[in-house]
Amino acid sequence: MRVSVRAGLAGVVAAGVALGVAELVAVGTGAASGPLVAVGGVVVDHVPAPVKDFGIAVFGVHDKTALLSGTAILLGLYAYGIGVAALRRWAFAVVGIGVFGLVGAVAAVSRDDVGLAGALPSVIGATAAIFVLRHLLRLSERAEPSTAGSVVAGHDEGGYAYQRRRFLKDLGIVAAVAAGAGAGGRWLSSRRAVSVARQEVALPAAQGSAPVVPSGVQAQGAVPYVTANSDFYRIDTALVTPQVDPATWRLRIHGMVRNPIEITWEELLKRPMVERYVTLACVSNEVGGDLIGNALWLGTPIKALLDEADPLPGADQVVQRSSDGWTCGAPTSVLRDGRDALLAVGMNGEPLPVAHGFPVRMVVPGLYGYVSACKWITEIELTRFADFDAYWVPRGWSAQAPVKTQSRIDSPRNGATRPAGPVVVAGVAWAQHRGIAKVEVQVDSGAWEEATLAPTVSADTWRQWSHTWQAPAGRHVVRVRATDIDGVTQIANEAPPAPDGATGWHQVEVGVE
Ligand SMILES: Nc1nc2c(c(=O)[nH]1)N[C@H]1C(S)=C(S)[C@@H](COP(=O)(O)O)O[C@H]1N2
Ligand SMILES: [Mo]
């Protein structure tokens, strides 16, 4: 193995030590302060607006893994370079690792949910990396005649071979220790996490009777009417799930109000609670996509709290801010018009799952999630649309975004085959807060036929539908369109999700034999 390759590997392992040690330190300062997560977070927030397809409001779990692995690979290349550069001058390594530590520290401290102590993981990690690199490079040096060409007395080739083995052995041990520190740090962080506090939460009972789910809400072949928490789509910009302890949680309502309010978790739970089914949809949902789910939310109506805060005239925007600094803005008029806009604490009979906003999030029927459904919410600020752009607005998405009427075919799936004869076509349709009046199905270029609508709990949820089609042999295209209560039919024109929600009719191809 060449000297420069050994030095490069030593650099990579030293970087691993930096990350592993940082993860351990971050057990004390919060997982969001680890350098990889902190730098990744800064990247997420600063992706240039034209790169519309990167993540966008769909920043799903896969994008996060890709981003973190990408950052780790870049870091690995940088560290390899530092190792090689250290062969020329040790100072290069110190400066190189110092820059890495500084970038991590500055990124961490700049995050909303990280304090000054958040610099420690990067600083301590970088310091450890410097010592480790120094040690490994010394070992590597001994495994080679000096670069000047003079053979050190008493070291024959066998001696060098021994030194090389020793270098490789130490490299392996240090790499294993670094990986162990990283994994151990992650594990300890998860044990400290609020999932423990969540298990101790006893949710208050809802006032009044729970909404009645009429029998027959479920169409055969459509997704379940109520989405299980474990199946509920998850979208957010958070690289590590924010850990908000109910014991220290506060919600501040301030800005353009006559009476600023601050309430604690205990006080929130004493407020009147209601239970409502509301279907939440992501603006990034493509036609036919699955970034939509329906759950039973337990929460207190936000209208009453806003009324108490008493917004000033002109405060047309309610900005919600999460513990990690994400923001969304909804029209004040919508949150006060009497709909079931809830500050929610429960989801399908459990405290909110941590990934879905524990301990408190907002849910607003009829608005896309990115303008209304702040998870890990800690602040509400009354302002004007003209004065403040929430997170996704400068990134090319509309400031106001009511949910568009949409429908989806769940069965048969695209590309499925069915025997000729009666085929049940089924799915869901939604126009939250307006309600679905009609769903129609078209096969090939035939006439639109009205599907059977299942009953529904309210206009705030999706509605299931089904239609029996007498399918003749051959390949067919089956299409669906919905009409809302106002009589407006979903438009055929295909538009992408940006800037305010996709349009077009969902269709599937079915082979009939
Ligand atoms: N704090 C925070 N809340 C957030 C987001 C976010 O990135 N951060 N994303 C929003 C978006 S775009 C959607 S669609 C919904 C998704 O909620 P869910 O993950 O519970 O399905 O959360 C909203 N609330
Ligand atoms: Mo979204």
Automatic annotation (TrEMBL):
Signal peptide: none annotated. It comes from the Bacteria. One of its GO terms (biological process) is sulfur compound metabolic process. Residues 240-392 form the Oxidoreductase molybdopterin-binding domain. It comes from Actinoplanes lutulentus. GO terms for molecular function: heme binding; molybdopterin cofactor binding; sulfite oxidase activity. Gene3D superfamilies: 2.60.40.650, Oxidoreductase, molybdopterin-binding domain. InterPro entries: Ig_E-set (IPR014756), OxRdtase_Mopterin-bd_dom (IPR000572), OxRdtase_Mopterin-bd_sf (IPR036374). Keywords: Membrane, Transmembrane, Transmembrane helix. This is DMSO/TMAO reductase YedYZ molybdopterin-dependent catalytic subunit.
